[in-house]
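note to self: dont lose this again. the chain is below, predicted strucutre after it. 198 aa total, dont forget to put it in the shared folder this time
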Amino acid sequence: MMSDRAAGLKEHRTKGHKRGSFTSLFFASSFLFLHLRIQSSGILMPVLKHVQKVWTTFLEAGGFDAQALSGLKLVSASKGFIKCELDVAQIHMNRLGGCHGGLLSSIVDIGGSLAIAAENMHATGVSTDLNVSFVSGAKLGDKLIINSRCDKIGGTLAYTSVEITANGKVVVLGRHTKYVRLAHLSNAELQQRISSEE
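---
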């Protein structure tokens, strides 16, 4: 006859197994959902193409962005989110042999703007605040991975967060706030013009 202690242990193991099975199933289902979302071009590709068009207008302006960040590559995008890559080149270095802080700050600036573009915005507003925390460094030849998201976009301000990593380590954590009231008006006018041409 099974003792009370043995019975309790068996019940505990059974419950633990059920909880473990449920947890594994939950994470497996979540992973499958994300995998299908990434693979579904019908969801992601229109946003990516839109953000690429916006980024092209930055480059075609021929200013600082075109000089310092022409190698920036958009990897993926979904609503309010973008992922970019940039290989650290000699032009990006400071006199101490590390990736220049000014470049990293510019990436936070651009990353935030493109995350706003991923909210179906053509114009992305003007900066009101830029905060950059330098967590570690990057060196020549490193590939910078930039993940940006639009945390909130309202009628007046848009708030974004940017994380830059290299070799699996966080290099920069940044926040970029932009004034977007006039950008909304510009976007509305553009949408109206597009609709009238169709």
